[in-house]
Write a structure and sequence with these properties.
The complex is a heterodimer of chains A (124) and B (653).
Chain A lengths: L6 E5 L3 H13 L3 E5 L2 H7 L5 E7 L7 H10 L6 E5 L6 H7 L4 E4 L4 H14 L1
Parallel strand pairs in A: 1-2, 1-3, 3-4, 4-5
Chain B lengths: L10 H8 L6 E5 L4 E4 L1 H7 L22 H11 L3 E7 L2 E11 L5 E10 L1 H23 L4 E4 L5 E4 L1 H7 L3 H4 L15 H11 L8 E7 L3 E12 L8 E8 L1 H32 L1 E7 L4 E4 L1 H7 L9 H5 L7 H14 L3 E8 L5 E12 L5 E9 L1 H56 L5 H29 L7 E3 L1 H18 L3 E6 L6 E3 L1 H18 L9 E9 L3 E7 L28 H11 L3 E6 L5 E8 L13 E2 L14
Parallel strand pairs in B: 17-19
Antiparallel strand pairs in B: 1-2, 1-5, 3-4, 4-5, 6-7, 6-10, 8-9, 9-10, 11-12, 11-15, 13-14, 13-23, 14-15, 16-18, 19-20, 20-22, 21-22
Helix pairs in contact in B: 12-13, 12-14, 12-16, 14-15, 15-16
The chains are: A alpha/beta (124), B alpha+beta (653).
Chain lengths: 124, 653
């Protein structure tokens, strides 16, 4: 169900997420790469091989939903799993309505992550 | 004419005898013809021999006795001699007209003997004149004067005496002085003095006597007495004088009454003022340790007002913690004199505590002794009120902080969730690495290291939160305003980010520390940051730029400025911005800026707002960076001469 080429991209301005999450993803058998901002990800050239995007909601500059809109504009149908430290119950339905696969509230468990990834990759 | 003497048989013989006396003698017959006269009669009265046998009335010298015939007739008829005054030029005679008896015991005529009284008469005239003169003087004297006998019986008085006492001369003659008038002039006590004076042992000491006069009421008199010795009289007389001092006494009494009333009035004012201001006064004569207290001072120390004040007594009231200082103040005054000004506490018998403010000034009194005069004020209520106010302010500040906490909840959760997320992810990774075959120990070690770091990060957030929202009482410490600002930014950063606020910090490198309450200052900074963020909530046509700046300010102060690009404020409402419960925000309580200003003012600083040239507003505060700090126990702040009084740097917020 996975391949070496299929990449899980992580975009988050928080360094500890950028350090820890790709390591876990790799332990789970995914190829993973972290980006500190939406702009960095858009400029990376990794968009085409991204099978799932794990995207922080609130970031300086371009936010997670901004990136989601930009990718839609570019017709890049990448399944997106939003992650956020803001436990705002109104956020999740809005993001799901806008096409997100899942929205995880930090801190999230390995199980929740795997479930979300499973859904995302199946969607892909 | 028989004379009764042998050999003397004729009148002529008799005349010869009469010639030998100096007194002129003229014998007049019953038919008023001159029978004979002696030689002095011829010499003194100028009679001649041809006058014998002539009628008296035809002799010019005897014309000075116009009633002579009538008087002679009377003498002959009665057989009793009489006298008549006779003047011849400037000479005065007393004429004795005696019956001249013949041998058959018939009165045959009269014998006129002329005694020259000219000299006597002159001295009598003088005496009369002087007596009248003296009398008229005495009568013009307004003071009553009376001459009394040694047994105090009235001899005579001047007009003033009779009119003053309302008595007549006749009814008082010989009456004892103390029976005069209504008899109220009690002299019984004076008798001893009179006797001493009359005995020549002591001069009379004037005595003040009260006497009720008819129609005049009670008068006060000074009674004086002088012993009079009359030449040629063995009996003494006493001159008693009365001087009415009623008017003077009344004037003095009125004046005394007035000044006494004024004194009482000002004393009453003082006592009332002391009671109202709870300020007692005291004096301390250093040499003798003589201490006097005002009524209020007694009340403050809770001591009964008649108890003599001693330092021992005062020590029983001084709070044990203040006894050493109390002794030091006393010792210092004894050693160096001078003033003092200190705050102290009393421990009352009911175990309540009183706070006192004692001020005294040293100086020399009229005896040249060192004497301290001062005041002792009971400031307990003020102190308690200050403490209550400080507590209320502190509670309000806490309420404001907790309110702010609500606004920050999401931000705080974010700040905690971020590291928690790292921790859980790393722990999951770690388990997988250790479960692998062979276990990836190096990788696991790295994840554990990150877990520790994130754990500490979460812990730091909690520590900051507890510092900001946990405590209520104010403390005073040196505060690095830059560090304090950075911590506030760290807590609110995600909130600002979520509000799409672009934060620019411009913190001066050389910022000196300020003195104050770190948490309260952070509360102000946080409040200003969140206000600025809120003010830009509806701004979409320009960057939501927020600049926070610290810098040195004039006059050894530090200034912090928060500039936003928000909706700004109406310059006309600028003063209302800082009023409690004034708010322009839908969810605001309107206490943030009010509490912030109160906090800044308690740091001897000021907080103000200015509109920007462009959009938005700038809020700034400036506080001194070298404020003096009160010791933790400010109940004992001593100010002595030459020293500086230590003020509260903090309002107690």
């Amino acid at each position: 169900m996975t391949s070496r080429r299929s990449l899980v991209a992580v975009v988050d301005d928080d360094e500890s997420v950028r350090e820890s999450l790709p390591d876990l993803l790799r332990e789970l058998g995914f190829a993973a790469r972290a980006f500190s901002s939406a702009e960095e990800y858009l400029a990376s050239g990794d968009i085409g091989r991204t099978k799932c995007l794990i995207l922080d909601v609130a970031m300086p500059g371009m936010s997670g939903p901004d990136l989601q809109q930009e990718l839609a504009r570019r017709r890049q149908a990448i399944p997106i799993v939003f992650i956020t430290a803001h436990q705002d119950d109104t956020v999740r339905p809005r993001l799901l309505a806008q096409g997100a696969v899942e929205c995880l509230f930090k801190p999230f468990s390995e199980t929740a992550l795997l479930a979300a990834l499973d859904t995302a990759l199946r969607a892909a | 004419m028989t004379t009764g003497f042998e050999g003397i048989t004729t009148a002529s013989d008799l005349i010869d005898i009469l010639d030998t006396i100096e007194v002129p003698v003229v014998v007049v017959r019953r038919d008023f013809l001159v029978a004979c006269f002696n030689k002095p009669a011829a010499d003194v009265l100028g009679l001649s021999g041809s006058d014998v046998g002539r009628p008296c009335r035809s002799i010019s010298v005897l014309a000075g006795l116009p009633r002579l015939e009538q008087q002679c007739r009377q003498v002959i008829a009665d057989g009793v001699e009489c006298r008549a005054d006779f003047r011849d030029g400037d000479r005065w005679f007393v004429v004795r007209i005696s019956p001249c008896t013949t041998g058959d015991r018939q009165i045959s005529g009269t014998v006129l003997s002329f005694t020259n009284v000219t000299a006597f008469r002159a001295s009598t005239d003088q005496a009369i004149y002087e007596r009248e003169f003296t009398k008229s003087i005495l009568n013009t004297v307004a003071d009553p004067l009376v001459v009394v006998s040694p047994d105090l019986r009235i001899q005579s008085g001047n007009r003033a005496f009779y009119t003053t006492f309302g008595v007549s001369r006749d009814e008082t003659q010989g009456v004892p002085l103390d029976k005069v008038g209504n008899g109220a002039l009690a002299l019984r006590t004076l008798r001893a003095q009179f006797e001493e004076m009359l005995a020549g042992r002591h001069a009379f000491q004037p005595v003040e006597v009260e006497h009720v006069f008819p129609g005049k009421g009670q008068r006060t008199l000074i009674l004086d007495a002088r012993s009079l010795s009359l030449p040629g009289h063995s009996e003494r007389r006493v001159l008693v004088t009365f001087h009415d001092i009623t008017a003077r006494k009344q004037a003095e009494a009125a004046k005394d009454l007035r000044s006494e009333a004024e004194l009482r009035r000002s004393e009453a004012f003082l006592a009332e003022a002391q009671r109202l201001s709870q300020t007692g006064s005291f004096s301390w004569r250093v040499a003798t340790d003589e201490i006097t207290w005002s009524e209020e001072a007694y009340r403050i120390y809770g001591i009964y007002p008649t108890v003599p004040v001693t330092f021992e007594l005062i020590r029983t009231r001084v709070h044990p913690d203040n006894l050493l200082m109390f002794q030091e103040v006393i010792d210092r005054v004894r050693r160096e004199g001078g003033d003092f000004d200190y705050e102290s506490r009393l421990l009352m018998p009911d175990h309540s505590i009183k706070y006192l403010h004692v001020v005294a000034h040293g100086g020399r009194n009229e005896d040249g002794e060192l004497e301290l005069v001062g005041s002792v004020q009971d400031v307990t209520e003020r102190r308690f009120a200050e403490e209550a106010l400080a507590k209320a302010r502190s509670e309000l500040a806490h309420v404001a902080r907790v309110t702010t906490l609500g606004a920050l909840t999401a931000s705080i959760a974010h700040e905690v969730n971020q590291p928690l997320s790292g921790i859980i992810t790393n722990a999951s990774t770690c388990l997988r690495m250790l479960d692998a075959d062979p276990p990836n120990v190096d990788g696991a070690r790295e994840t554990v290291r990150r877990t520790l770091r994130d754990g500490n990060r979460a812990s730091d957030v909690i520590t900051r939160l507890r510092a900001l929202f946990g405590k209520q009482s104010a403390t005073t410490e040196p505060v690095d305003l830059n560090d304090a600002t950075r911590e506030v930014i760290a807590l609110s950063l995600s909130d600002l980010q979520r509000s799409r606020v672009i934060l620019r910090t411009d913190l001066a490198d050389d910022l000196p520390p300020v003195t104050g309450d770190r948490v309260q200052l952070q509360q102000v900074i946080l409040n200003l940051l969140l206000n600025a963020s809120d003010a830009m909530g509806d701004v979409d046509d320009r960057p939501r730029q927020l600049v926070i700046r610290t810098e040195r300010d004039e006059g050894d102060r530090v200034r912090l400025t928060v500039q936003d690009a928000g909706i700004g404020f109406d310059p006309q409402t600028v003063q209302r911005l800082f009023d409690a419960f004034y708010t322009t925000k839908s969810g605001g309580m309107g206490i943030g800026l009010s509490v912030s200003r109160s906090i800044i003012e308690s740091h001897q600083g000021r907080l103000w707002a200015t509109p920007n040239d462009g959009p938005g507003a700038t809020f700034s505060f400036s506080i001194p960076c070298a404020a003096e700090v009160a010791p933790p126990d400010a109940a004992v702040a001593v100010r002595l001469p030459g020293g500086t009084h230590i003020e509260h740097a903090m309002g107690g917020l």
